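Good morning,

Both structures are done.
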Amino acid sequence: MEKLIPLVNQLQDLVFNTIGSDFLDLPSIVVVGSQSCGKSSVLENIVGKDFLPRGTGIVTRRPLILQLINLKEEESNSDVNHEDPQQDSSNTDGTTASLENRSDQEGYAEFLHLPNVRFTDFGKVRAEIENETLRVAGANKGINKLPINLKIYSKHVLNLTLIDLPGLTKIPVGDQPTDIESQTRSLIMEYIGKPNSIILAVSPANFDIVNSEGLKLARLVDPKGKRTIGVLTKLDLMDQGTNAMDILSGRVYPLKLGFIPTVNRSQSDIISHKSLRDALLSENDFFANHPAYRAIVNRCGTFYLAKTLSNLLIAHIRDRLPDIKARLSTLISQTQSQLENYGIFKVSDKAQRGIILLQAMNRFANSFIASIDGNSSNIPTKELSGGARLYSIFNNVFSTTLNSIDPLQNLSITDIRTAILNSTGSRATLFLSEMAFDILVKPQLALLAPPCHECVELVYEELMKICHYSGDTDMSRFPKLQTALIETVSDLLRENLSPTFSFVESLISIQMAYINTNHPDFLGVQGAMSNVLARKNQHLTTRRRSASYSNPVVDTTKNDNPDSSITDIASSDDVTSVTPNRKLQNFGSDNLERKTFLSYVFGANNSVKRAPMHSKRLSNSLSLNEPVHMLSDQTNTQPQSNYANSFPVKMTDLSSEVESMALEEMTEREELEVELIQELITSYFILTRKIVVDQVPKVIMHLLVNASKDAVQNRLVSSLYREELFDSLLIEDENIKSEREKNERLLSVYMQANKMISNVF
């Protein structure tokens, strides 16, 4: 049990020397109280040395971790006979003195920030505390959380660890910060809020105990008073005839650990340099001779307080040590796991570096392939990634874009009429021109090229994203290696992009190179004619019904049932041959002109043809309402001389003829030819689009995706596995290196602390 407090002291030294903070939440006694409540005097009485700074305002501005270590007789003698060369050399500056010139009963002090320097003059200990406080906290009376660690070795102290905190003040004085109260309160709460701390609340007896700032703060974190012990100071300054027995008995403010009364030196005693030895004797006399306290004299005074605190701390350490050991085990496990994430960096020889490099390349390649195949261990749940995005590009983006293209996009009726006329040459044709179909369908097939190119680019960009996200956390240890891996795979993707792009272009060019009108899925002229006639019959039937509803007076001499007449006309091979502007007025008349199926294809002598494109430039002798039979084999009724004289059109004016075509009325044959061409173009475009939707993803997968997957491993090895590149590629990132070394230090500290506890526990 005697080893428990030294064990905690060793652990404190270990963690503060290596880490700088008490991460283990080691058991300790925290001294709190208001300013000028007597905290410093209590500590000096326990130590038996006058070593703490004194003055007005806040004097303690940094936490002071005070470790009291009891020296046994043999340890004192060994210290007396020991000479340290460093101590002899330090005597030149007057800050330390050799133990040979001091009595072993005087003891000595050591600061953690001044290793191997012993202070036997406790006046210089006070000066060092002031200087260290000024160095860190500054001269503006502000406070700082960085603690000062002080060890005091003496035969007259018990093993004990105390933490002295700044006294709580209400009003800033002088150049103190305006928020000095909140700063101090925050610092105190940080220490007493730890469950492993014992709170030593110091309160002056000559003030109302219910107004004690130390007890108020203690109650905030320890409302039941289980780990709070009270100390009453200045009992000799209480009013005559009063005492603190009600407080000491727990009737006023109950605490499980109770209250202990002390009497310290007054300000006049300090000024007159009254020794602590005399002060302790005066304290004993006070309690022994006081009528109220002499019955409990064995539970009063500094010696009883020190003994109680030592026993209390030992018991507290014993109770909390299993939890500390369990916490250490958890920290060791967490730190080892963190180090495994950073990896074990051993590059003692070239072979070891080669193994590290090969493993990194293998993990990178496997991660790249697994992301495409959907076998990655880190599958995101918020968005599509890897191979799923490639599937979405092919089946959603690409196919939707192609299906949204209008087969007749940018192709007007004027364009079709012009192409038909140009393909016939100088004479009229009997059959629909196949040359016009070829000329018109190829530009429409070219509309499929841009979406195909965009699909290739989207897949390439997605593969580049997969490349940048490939690898694991260990890869980030070597940023140059990671960059080299990404650049190598990026070069491979760029190499495969060019042939993929060319092949997709060739695929569209192949479709445009040969228009296969014998394809089984192609509609053909007969199928197109059937569709066109079906639409015409349906349109004609609709018009007749509309006309019958608008004109109820109908000649029923031909047929009693108008609907049956409409049905017969719609189902027959003949179709009414009237111009679009005259169909409605000629509907139902006896002079309705009828034509055969062949008349739509080959034309008829009695059909009314449109005026030629240059008809608007004819002479006034030619009536605009008189039809001109350009395609008729009959002799033109208009005199040749008049026609020839009325045609002064220049070649430069032909462009305006094309523009006027859209405004002119088409003949039935021209309407039929235009609709047939549109039907054939639509059929062939849809046929080709199906082929492209199927072939382009296959080309991309074969030439870009699968080719990259198959070659990535070999490309990485052939490009990067070179002995001259080992040193440059395996340079560890500075931040990761720092974190890894930090975790290695932490693990070493944890292991040492665990070993210390295991030796005792």
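Second structure follows.
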Amino acid sequence: MKQLINERISALFRSNWQHTLTYWSVFFSFGLCVAFLGPTILDLRCQTQSTLQGITLVFFSQQFFLFIGSTIGGFFSKTLVSSLFALAVSSLTISVVFAVIPLCHKLLLLAFALAVSGLAMGIIDTISNLQLVKIYQKDSTVFLQALHFFVGLGALVSPLIADPFLSETSCVIGNSSTNATSLRHLRNKLAGRHVHNVSSVHLHTDGEVVTNVSYAFWIMAIINLPVPIGILILMYRERLFTCGSDPSRRLLDGDVLALKTWGTTGLSEDTGHQKKTSRSHADLFGCCLLGNAHSFPLSFFGIHILGGLVLFFSDGIVGSYTGFVYTYAVAPPMNLPHKTAGYLTCVFWAAITVGRLSAIPLSYRFKPVRLLVVSQVGVIVTLLLLLIFSNSRVFLFIGTCCLGLFISSIFPCTLAFTEDVLEYKGCATTVMVTSAGMGEMLLQVLVGSVMHNQGSFSFLLCGMIFGCLGFAFFVLLFLVQQSHKNFTEAFPSNSSTERLEENGIKTCSAAVLNSWDTSEQKASIDP
């Protein structure tokens, strides 16, 4: 049985490898944007000559528009051409933003640039997850794990690129260092030492500020350029450009790619189910419209809400830990040197990357719910041990590594689990991605505010509270899905009309496949 599953997954990947690699590559762009702000924030503060309170605006602007992008991303996933075009524009936008960040010497300009990058990140997040779920459906767990591995890879690469260019001693103004402010002093201020004086720290500079971190952003812009180029090449190969392409091909839904795959691998009996998935995912939050509400049980909506809450807290932990572990490490009682503390973010993202890579083979052997149980329990145990050994520098690194390993698989496994329970009839992917973005935005702001008022120790306490809430909602999600499963087993088909509709869909799907093959034959014959 396992060999049959492996052969099916291999056949699916061989038929869709170009599209799969495209979605993986754009998530590398997403990862580049996730982690670059942390290590470069003080150099950007020096560049914009802003106060500490003002520079935090850029965090909020990026996260807020990431949430907006995640919400509207579903509108671009209705067709294959619109999905790929949106991904190409979004990934190219990220390169442009990286290139112009060194030119933003005003705080509002910098906030606007990062808001644009956040919007592009949100669109990438929703479309990539949604399209992989559409293509692979019940086998999507493995490919979602790989997708989120590339996020960790990009988030690991960006701090490593930035590290050699970070200023350690002073802001250089023009050709001199007169009236320069020590960045080491600013790092200590940002970390929480003498917190009561943070709001009064200003950069008294004259003229334009020049920092070496500009080179890091330009390098990242160049590294990211092959991604939009690769997407445009794929669109050309698939004949999705308006000029000289088959109009009927351009109008086909992204799921036709999956329909073709199922047909060529001997699984054509599922085409009706595939088409239902296309229809259900095409409309943003279509499952939640009041007109359709009567046809679904309450457990259907409960799974959407509880799954979103699980990711709200798990991604909130990731965002807050990434943003403030440095702050916690250099403040009492840890008092780590700033250089040593800077490695914590790299360790965390490296652990997430390794965790998602190792989860790929594990997804073959275990169901998503089993991986979720291990991950959720592991997160709580790790945060509890971090609280107990809060004075240990060594365990801070060990705990950071363990936290990254355990939390790495929660997003892809939760997404695969909820979609599988709902039989791909709802809008779980859009709800999950939107909830995760909202949690990362709101909980990061909440943790920063609590740390400012209560001290650095509240950082771990907040993480523990978020972990317990996430686990509690996961338990509720498991119980609700059992109720939903019992309901679907008791009522496997709502009406004879649905069965007739399914038969019609199968006939329509077969016609679509035949028309596809016919258009390809014509294209190969006609000069």
